[in-house]
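Pasting as-is:
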Amino acid sequence: MISTKMEGALNKQIELESYASNLYLAMAAWCDQQGLAGCTQFMRRQSDEERDHMLRIVDYLFTVDGKAIIPALQKPPTTFKSVQSMFELVYNHEQKVTKSIFKLLELSDLEKDYSAENFLQWYVEEQREEEELMRNILDKLKLIGSGARSLYYIDLELEKINQEQLAAAAAEPGA
């Protein structure tokens, strides 16, 4: 049985993951409007991944006889100054999600909820990977630089990263 505090905290995480999914989908739409097919595909896949993260929590709450609350969400931004600023926003959001996961782990320890603690370990690794990926993308964006011509190379690089991630996901057991 899950505590009321843990249930409430996991429902806040559902909201955070849902917002991330919507934010990344809004970013995909903006990238599409800029003619950046690689960026569009990448952000669309990120949006799907965040939705999956949200659904994992919903499913977990079902298994521990908790109540999952599907939230109304704040509208994400629809325009961005640049691809670079967009990815800085993504990186900052991923750091916020990581902090939230760590707070959930602290709460699971306080509540002696070992089931939740075990469940959350997957998110710890996932967030480490997400932050590393976004840092690497930001590093590449700095190397490529800014300007109209750089967008072409940025788009190609994100298309390449997207293809690598799709191949890695297909190679995972159970895929």
